[in-house]
Amino acid sequence: MVCTGNACRSPMAAAILQQRLADRGIDARVTSAGTMPWSSGATGPAVEVMREHGLDISGHENRQVTRELVEEADLVLGMTRDHVSIATARSPDARGRTFLVGELARLGADVGPRAASEPVARWAERAAAARPLRRPLGRAVDEIADPAGESIDVYRRTAAELDARLTEIAALLAGVPTLA
Description:
Radius of gyration: 15 Å
Oligomer: single chain
Strand content: 5-15%
Number of helices: 7
Order of helices and strands: EHEHHEHEHHH
Largest sheet: 4 strands, parallel
Strand order of the largest sheet: 2-1-3-4
Number of strands: 4
């Protein structure tokens, strides 16, 4: 799995998803890649907020989304429509497994949890089939704003929103129904 997007350059989403999947007993490789070139690691506020969540992202090294990363992923998550658009531009075949975090939580609840023997990519395709035809990926309400440059309170709100949605996604991937 890969998490893409500017906010994943400070790998809050990737760290939270990795932990929530582990909490559910799912062994997955969650990677983080950004849509903009950055030479520094995680921001100070991101490191502090993740520490408050019991997660250490201080050693994070940034990398950019590539076609290869997207093609290797069973599931591609972004925080904004720009993020998922860039990922699908890198690999158009990934559209059926590329989602906004909020979009996958919503659609996943609609289609139901992943079956024990169902590959993640197949479950993602089921969720993608629930999208309206010929529309952009996700809705504005599915987006989670990038906190870069904002106060630590904005980082905390972003982390809380990510945690809520990614906990739902982890449950669905583990085969547990969620409340829609």
